[in-house]
Q: What sequence folds into this?
């Protein structure tokens, strides 16, 4: 036991000695997270959030620098360059929380993805064996998986121990201790465990080990069957599009991307088996996959351009288009070059991703901003809203158009394009806008801009929705001994039933795909169906956008021993689901005969 403890202590010390900056970043991130939890995240402590983001990014960047330094040396220069970049990145983030708009999500998410892609290939920027590259990434993947398992068990065990001590010894520990423990172990703990698994680093990660059979099993019996299901769905959907001659739905883009990513991942996992004559299925799968992907890329381009042509570029559409372009390059590369390098996959994706962030005029933010500027200008011109260059907010305009204009104002305002927007407003509106946005989270001005329009025409309902309500405030309970309040969330469960004189009275409201049950029951053998009353009541009124005020909405159910009156405060029927009826609150009055 003593020898084991000495060995573990030695491994821990060796890890601290090999990766001091990486562990320092993890500690900074964990301490910052604990500070944020302690102070509840007020705006004046947003610097803590910035520190968490920057230090988490620093973990992957410094690890990549360490791997490269083990290949080419110059560790001090590389680590200094990373620290300089992280310092600039920290100050690049906004000083105030409300300026941390959704725009930064489209900077941070790609940046973190790129930092991990960089780790995957940066030690192999010079020519080296493909198998070493594969072994390196395979070991990183396995170490990440093991780290997740170890960290999960460690974190769960420690938090359960704290809970046990708290409950058994009545210590009344601070509830914030649990999220703080989670933050420390999930950040610092996971980082330290991952580094322990990596041991000496590059020399250990790229060593030529025996191919893990679990990867073969996982690929052959999990990933490839999944791909088979995806490709069948996608090809049947493509056939449906051609038969009906209709444009593809937007979400099909994500299914195609999922199929592509899983397929490429599967190919990478079985890469060493391609040269094994006994594994002919690997070669067959490798050849077939890229050919099956080619028609789907055409569908992907069609889906994304359908949205772009209708609504213009936004950052998500830009990145979907970028992924479509990358997949096209990958498919062409591997069809032309039968023995193409697997390094091409992360390197090409990293290159395009980097361009999407830093390439002037063509990066994601610049393209999206220009596109939405053009969309807004076109929308104002189409609806004849400009008078001497200013928006005429008094002109009658459909509510849908108001929403579109407000959304585009909000999009551009959050991306700092205020000069153009201010050009469309007079001084009073500008003052009102500036006052309101100070009180809105993340500089949200959507509601304020919508409020400037004073003559908004409501949209005509096309879904045949009906809603009636009773404005009655007081109801007579004369003759009834019991009053029970009901709501739409009551289901047919034993604990929801009411006991009266030894009898069970239950209100049941449940539904499945085909049927809806809305009924009263007494002792389970007497039933009164409420749906006919509800259907007839709603059918008396036309479909319209406004709620319709009516008198009392009630019906009476007679049972052997009881008379029950049900009073609904409102009833509605949604045209999208014509066989579904809804209410919010109701009362059940019970009289014993």
A:
């Amino acid at each position: 036991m003593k020898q084991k403890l000495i060995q573990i202590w030695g491994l821990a010390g060796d890890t601290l000695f090999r990766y001091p900056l990486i562990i320092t970043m993890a500690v900074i991130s964990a301490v910052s997270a604990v500070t944020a939890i302690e102070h509840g995240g007020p705006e004046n402590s947003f610097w803590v959030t910035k520190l968490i983001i920057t230090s988490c990014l620093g973990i992957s960047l410094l690890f990549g620098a360490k791997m490269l330094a083990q290949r080419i040396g110059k560790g001090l220069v590389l680590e200094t360059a990373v620290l300089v970049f992280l310092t600039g990145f920290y100050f690049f983030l906004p000083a105030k929380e409300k300026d941390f708009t959704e725009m930064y999500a489209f900077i941070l998410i790609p940046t973190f993805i790129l930092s991990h892609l960089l780790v995957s290939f940066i030690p192999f920027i010079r020519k080296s064996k493909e198998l070493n590259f594969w072994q390196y990434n395979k070991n990183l993947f396995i170490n990440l998986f093991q780290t997740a398992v170890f960290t999960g068990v460690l974190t769960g065990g420690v938090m359960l121990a704290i809970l046990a001590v708290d409950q058994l010894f009545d210590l009344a520990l601070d509830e914030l201790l649990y999220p703080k423990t989670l933050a420390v172990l999930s950040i610092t703990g996971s980082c330290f465990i991952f580094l322990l698994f990596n041991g000496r680093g590059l020399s250990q990660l790229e060593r030529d080990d025996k191919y893990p059979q679990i990867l073969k099993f996982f690929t052959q019996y999990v990933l490839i069957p999944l791909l088979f299901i995806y490709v069948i769905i996608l090809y049947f959907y493509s056939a449906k599009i051609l038969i009906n001659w209709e444009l593809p739905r937007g979400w099909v883009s994500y299914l195609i991307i999922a199929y592509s990513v899983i397929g490429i991942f599967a190919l990478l996992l079985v890469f060493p088996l391609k040269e094994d004559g006994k594994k002919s299925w690997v070669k067959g799968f490798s050849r077939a996959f890229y050919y099956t992907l080619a028609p789907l890329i055409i569908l992907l381009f069609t889906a994304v351009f359908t949205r772009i042509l209708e609504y213009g570029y936004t950052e998500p559409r830009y990145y979907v288009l970028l992924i479509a372009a990358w997949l096209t390059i990958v498919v062409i590369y591997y069809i032309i070059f039968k023995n193409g390098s697997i390094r091409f996959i992360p390197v090409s994706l990293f290159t395009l991703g980097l361009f999407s962030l830093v390439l002037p005029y063509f990066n994601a933010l610049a393209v999206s901003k220009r596109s939405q500027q053009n969309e807004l200008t076109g929308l104002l011109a189409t609806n004849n809203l400009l008078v001497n260059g200013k928006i005429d907010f008094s002109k009658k305009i459909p509510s849908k158009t108001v929403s579109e204009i407000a959304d585009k104002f909000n999009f551009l305002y959050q991306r700092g394009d205020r000069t153009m927007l201010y050009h469309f407003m007079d001084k009073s509106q500008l003052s009102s806008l500036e006052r309101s946005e100070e009180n809105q989270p993340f500089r949200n001005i959507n509601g304020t801009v919508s409020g400037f329009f004073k003559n908004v025409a409501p949209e005509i309902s096309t879904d045949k929705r009906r809603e009636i309500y009773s404005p009655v405030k007081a109801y007579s309970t004369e003759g009834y001994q019991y009053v029970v309040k009901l709501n739409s969330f009551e289901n047919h469960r034993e604990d929801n039933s009411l006991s009266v004189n030894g009898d069970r009275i239950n209100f049941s409201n449940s539904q499945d795909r085909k049927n809806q049950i809305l009924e009263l029951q007494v002792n389970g053998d007497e039933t009164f169906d409420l749906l006919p009353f509800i259907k007839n009541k709603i059918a008396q009124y036309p479909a319209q956008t406004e709620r319709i005020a009516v008198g009392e909405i009630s019906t009476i159910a007679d049972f052997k021993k009881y008379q029950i009156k049900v009073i609904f405060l409102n009833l509605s029927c949604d045209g999208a689901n014509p066989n579904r009826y809804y209410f919010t609150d109701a009362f059940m009055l019970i009289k014993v005969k």
Summary: The radius of gyration is 32 Å. Residues 242 and 513 are 30 Å apart (CA to CA).
